[in-house]
Each structure stands twice: as C-alpha cells, then as structure tokens.
DNA sequence: TTGAAAGCGCTACCAT
DNA sequence: ATGGTAGCGCTTTCAA
C-alpha cells in the first residue's frame, strides 16, 4: 500500500520525473502526446500529487486559514459558508480557527497558520493588528479582513456600509414616531461599531434629538451581555421606547430582558436587530432587522484573497456591501404617554 | 527575511542538525546542557519547526480533519467547539470541511484530507461508509464517527444513548396524558434515527397505544422540511396531540406549521425538541427538549482520535453518552376532547 | 522537447 | 552523546 509517487508514473511512461511534473502541470513545453500518455498512466496508477512535498518545494500549500471570533454564532457560520463556496471548488483546503474573541488565541492561531504555510488568511471579525499579522505581511502571506477592520496596514477589507445600515434602522424607528432610541453596540473598539455609533449620533442630533446619557451601551456579543445592558437602560428615568441592537444575538438579549420585566415587544419596546439570520425570521421572534448579505461577504473575501494569492504585488482593496432592511413585527409606534 | 532553519540553529550552537532535532524533540539521548543551549539558540534566532518538512519526512502533519454535514447548524458548531477545545491546546490544526449533507462532497473532502496527510479524521454526522473512508483505513488514518454511525468497519464511534433519549421524551408526554404522539425523525437511514424510531414504537406498543399510520415522518434536517411534514400530520383524521422532533431545528419547523394554522403551543400541540441548543432556551421559544451533551460529544471524539493517532494498533472503541431532559413550556397536557 | 540533479527542511539511521 | 548523511516527493534550473 505504498504511496504512488511521481517516480512510479515516470517509470511507467518511460520519461523523467521532470517531464511528468511538467505534463501534469499542463506546461506548454510538453507535447500534447506526452501529456496524454502521462495523464493516462497517472490515472491508471491512481497517482495524486502530494501537497506536502509540493509545499516544501514551492512554498504553496493550497490551504487558506480562516480565523473567526465565534464559530457557534450562526452569523459567522453563514459567512464561512460563503467563503468555502468559492474556495472549495478550487481545491483549497480551509483551516478554520476559532478564537472565542480572545486576543491571545488570535495570535496563536495566526502564528500556527503561518508555520503551516497557508497561502492566505481571512480574518473574520479580528479585533486588532498584532505581531502575528505583521509577521504574515512580512512573510508575504496575503490577509483579508472581514466584517471588522483591524487597525492599519496592508490588508484588504470586506465589510458592510455601516452608516447606511444604521440610518436604515433609525429612519424606520423615527418614522414610527420613536424619539428616545437606545443603541446596543459592540463593546470592542472596532471600526464598524464606531461607525455605527457615529451615524447614530449624527442622525439623531441632526433631527434635534441628540441621544441622552445612558442611551448607548457597549456590550459583548453574548445574549447575556445585552440582557444586562437592556435591564440597565430600562432603569433610566426616561427609558428608550425603541432599541437598536447591532446583532441578532444582542436583540435576543433585549427580548430576554423585556420578558423578565414583563414588558411586551413591540407594545412596550420596539427592537431592531442586525444581521437577519434565520433566527430573526422564526415565527416566535419576528425581528425587524437590518439584513446583512452574509454569503456575499464571504464570497467577496475569498475572491479578494485569491486575487492577492495569485499576484501578491496587487494593491489591497476594500469592498463595501450594502445592507438590506426587513420589517417584521418587533417594531411598532411607541405607546401614547 | 529567509526562514530560520534547523541548520541555522545548529551552526549557532556549534552542533549538528541531528542533535538540534533530538534536543528540540526532548529525546533522552541528549544532555540536559546541550538541550538548554539548543533551546536558547532556537529562541534567539526565532526558530520554529516547519510542520511541512517534518510531515514529508515522518508522515505526521499535526493536523486533523473534521467533516461536518452542516456547519451553520448551531448544534454541530457546539460539537466542533468541543473537539477543538482538546485538539487546539495540543497544537493540532483542525481542517473543517462542510458537506451540506451531500455524499459527493463528503467523498471529495475525505479524499483531499488524505492527500494532505491529516493524522486523523472526525466524521461528524457522516452518512455512510464510502470508498474514501475505506481508503483512509487502508492508509492507516484513524477515523472517529460522531453522532451518526456510518455502516460497518473499523471506526470508533461517539454518540448518545438514543433509546434512552426517546424514552425520556415519551415518558414526559405520556405522563402528561398524551396518547397520540407523532414523531419527526431524520429522513436519512442513519442508525440513531432508526434506534429512536424503534424505541418510540416499542414504548408506545408496550403501553397498548401503537403509533397510527402517518404518525412518523422522515424529514431532512431543515426547518422547512419539518414544517411541511407537520402540516401533513395536522391533516390526519386523528392528528397527534404531541410531537417529538429529533432536533431543535425540526422543532422550530413544527412551530412554524402551528403558527400558520393558527394553533397554539402547547395548548393545541405539545412539542418536544432534541438537542437543547441556545435556541430552545430563548424566552419566545421555551422548548421542552432532550438535551444533548454537545461539548462532551466533541471532547470524547477528539480523545478517541488522539488515542488511535498515538497508537493505531489500539482497538476501536465506542462511547455512548447519556442525554438529559429539560422541561420548558412547549409541553402541557392535551386539551380535553 | 526532454532529462539529470540539486535541494526545500526535516528526521532516522548508522557511525563514531 | 553527538555527527554525517540519505531521502521523504516534488519542482526547477541547466544541459543535452
């Protein structure tokens, strides 16, 4: 059961290993006839190239790493699906690494991916630039940041138009008559989170209703975190009549808090989510939400990465996708009084 | 920026490459003092082993493959977390492959994992034995099946005690007074699905209430599939008063169907789910469910795999974990009449 | 157009 | 206890 090597094929055809290599790589230098004979023999022997040996020689492994903050979040899972939908058909293996949003795990994973000589890395919701990413760039390994933009440097970026997304949510609520609108934003100091808050402040200020203190809460992405933040907001002297949560999971946290206080949604509180995963569409949830084109985000990230793997001298690029908006039944006009 | 190799370290310390290799592998043959000097030099130069070169030589890559039927299902995501929680700290890279439950993609992924010389493969909800898995075993690559048991052969298996799980659900419903209990099982002819149906039939028959025709539906794992099946059951002359869905997502499909028909849960229909993911616990869902120890399943699978990676002569083993049961508000006594 | 041979970085053997 | 060296399977000059 020993492995079939290029040598076996060469012997079988009666040519050199070099010729087999060139033939299988479909190099123009080899005669069509020789190519045919080589392919035939390879087929018969069940030969397949060893990516490992090839990698040692060329430095190209045919694998790409994906570093993701939370694999168990359906939102990220959908994005991953988008990524592999382009990478897998091309024969790339994807090494998915989960970081639990922990900086040291991010670092660890990127370091290990580099040792394994991945051809490129997608940083999905990566918190910030690190020594490891710097090393990646220095080693010429292309990086694509997705969803969050880590500060600085030579990385391509795929994201959503956050100001537009925020305005979509605000316009909906404003037109329903809401004036005290709270915001639950991601706690981490990431660019999308900040862009959203800026758009939020700008919008409300522009309409003469600048947000009151306590109306913006920075939370982690967990359901519990948003639940707690919501409970705090409900204790404000003039609590919000509507809440914008910048992820579906956060919105679920809001609904938990409301349930605990015996408040009804949307009667007592309107809630707008972000993402619009399948959860938002469940009959019991029916969350009005900004919808994020998850698969498309993944697809674009993969394409940007491939582009730079093919030619690393290409400049980095940014792709910004437009959000949609889906009105369901978690929003309504505020109660009189 | 050329890579630091073992040769550089050897030169620096003034020993041979062989000694460096042995020292870093902590082989007892090397003096403690030499080891110290080698480690020191490696540190100073920023040397790290090349897993690729090592793999070419030893056949061990330090990577394991995970083939999963649906990455976007939070249930499987949780299991993956369990797997990596043991593999990652040990320095293993995990290559996660999504198959969308498609046989040809399963085959494709296993084949590619073998070419990449993974040290072992976890088959998470793998549908059936294939040429690729046979090849894996022939090549001496250990396989662990998780959740579903693919027919035959030399694979370790980690699963749940399905008969017990089913009885937990039935006992709960029976004691509430339900007698017409429907079952939504996975459509595929997998062993757990069948074990559950057998336990179901046996339980009800043993109590003199064998399931009527149409009370068991085989569905795919999607929300829509279960919705459709539920609608059909509701059209039966004597529709069930309770439904057991063998996954949380299926249970959500049931609730969709109920919502469409204007039926209330649990008043008009009790529903028991399987899995008990975070979705089941949401205030709007509150699904009574058999709870599956997802992380533990993953952890055991990883351990079984490591065991056989370390010593492939070890016999395959099975691990069967016990389910829990969580009563929430999707179940109640049947309505009078 | 094809072949011979070097070498990617490492480990395992055999000497010393 | 340490060193020399072959070779894992492949690609890539360079020569023929």
Give the strand line-up of the largest sheet of chain A: 2-1-3-4-5-11
Low-confidence stretches of chain A: none
By CATH, the superfamily of the largest domain in chain A comes out as Response regulator
- Gap between N and C termini of chain A, in Å? 80 Å
- CATH architecture level-2 label of the largest domain in chain A: 3-Layer(aba) Sandwich
* Helix residue percentage of chain A: 40-55%
Radius of gyration of chain A: 25 Å
Q: Brief description of this entry?
A:
The first copy, chain A, has 337 residues and is an alpha/beta fold.
Question: Top keywords for this entry?
Answer:
homodimer, 337 residues, alpha/beta, 434 Repressor (Amino-terminal Domain), Rossmann fold, 3 domains, 6-stranded parallel beta sheet, 6-stranded mixed beta sheet, 44% helix, elongated, DNA-binding
Description:
The structure is a homodimer of 337-residue chains. Chain A is of the alpha/beta class and 337 residues long. The first copy, chain A, has three domains: 6-49, Orthogonal Bundle (434 Repressor (Amino-terminal Domain)); 63-159 and 294-321, 3-Layer(aba) Sandwich (Rossmann fold); 162-292, Rossmann fold. In chain A, 44% of the residues lie in helices and 17% in strands. The first copy, chain A, is built from twelve helices and twelve strands. Chain A binds chain B through residues 1, 48-53, 55-56, 61, 63, 71-72, 74, 77-78, 80-81, 84, 88, 91, 93-98, 112-113, 115-117, 138-139, 223, 252, 255-256, 259, 278-279, 282-285, and chain B through 1, 48-53, 55-56, 61, 63, 71-72, 74, 77-78, 80-81, 84, 88, 91, 93-98, 112-113, 115-117, 138-139, 223, 252, 255-256, 259, 278-279, 282-285. The structure holds a DNA duplex (16 and 16 nucleotides). Chains A, B: It comes from Roseococcus pinisoli. Chains A, B: Keywords: DNA-binding, Repressor, Transcription, Transcription regulation. Chains A, B: One of its GO terms (molecular function) is DNA binding. Chains A, B: This is LacI family DNA-binding transcriptional regulator. Chains A, B: InterPro entries: HTH_LacI, LacI/GalR-like_sensor, Lambda_DNA-bd_dom_sf, Peripla_BP_I.
